[in-house]
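Most newcomers find our protein records easier to grasp once they have seen one. Sequence and backbone structure share a record, each on its own labelled line. Nothing more is needed to start thinking about how sequence determines fold. As an example, a complete record with its sequence and its structure tokens follows.
=====
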Amino acid sequence: MSRSGGTISYLLVPGGVPDPDAFLALVLDGWGSAMTARGLGRDYIRTSRAVVLQLCDSSGKYPWEWSPGDADEWLAHLRGVRGLAHSTTRRYQGAIEGFCEYATSPAYDWSEQSARLFGRVFAQVITEFNRVKHSQANEARPAKRPFTVRELQQLFDLADLEFERVLESGRKGALSVLRDSAVLKIAYAWGLRVNEVRHLQVVDFSPNARAPYFGDYGNLHVRYGKSKAGRAYKPRNVLTVFDWSAEVVHDWVHLGLPRYGEPITDLFPTSSGSIVTSNKLWLRLSEFVDELGFPPGLDFHSLRRAYATNLATVYGFDLRFVQYQLGHEHAATTSIYTLPAADFQVRELARVHAATLEQSGASQVRLNHRLKLPPLPAARRSRQPNRGQS
């Protein structure tokens, strides 16, 4: 049977009874082909199919038997019983809505076929009454936060100290500690996600003709940037901002990386020839955070949060520059990290302060005075490891 008509005899089990599982598999395959044609990735398609099957299991019904009430109960279960995050529930809902749009589309004849086989037709079960809305611009958990400048300095100092401790103890793993220390500093210095930084290669760094003082590390080409759902990775270029960061890369490339052998392509390899895993980096950071006794809310992404926050609020970079550096399509996404005050707020605050100071005779006080904040953490020069492999 083609997807647009033809015989349905092969969907009948012995006795002439339609096989609903075979028909559902056919619809899901067709939906998968349609998503592939749109350029969506295999992981996204596999996850979307799994969500459809979850609603089938939850309701005990096939999709052509679903009603909005089935979707209501399922969504309530996701939030109230399973405790899924608002954003996760919305993604699940989006998969169901997309499936129903496909199955009910007049471009296909799935409803006609289900009517002939089972006497029921597909319907859209995600409506304006049960659709999960964006609750706010930022749906991140409020406990998550960026590293402070002081915490960054302590983190990087401990990473360097851990390398020294492993060397002095004679234990194996000194090179992996040095590697992970470089990963943490580079992730912060260029505002990278964990998957972006672990996939870096030596050739991704290049000079910036307008910033020659960074040497060979004035520009970073990020090839594994976060993509939209199911799409290919979105590359971007990130300009080097901190002079100490170029030194970190130089030291790692020339002192640490050659210990893995030649030739070297990946910037952060392992002794087995693969690249360092995300779990390994998260675990290393968690160990450092626990040892330092920092307040909760810090994870690997906190390095990226700190980068964005510090560029905008500590060092005064324009929000548009920060947006480009982070690879955000919309400035509203960047503001989630930086939360800068709107211009009218700043102007109004200055106006009221100016009037108050003038009335009190203290108009000579400078209103544009900025607090003296500590400098960015300076990376220590990495020592060449003399024992241990990861």
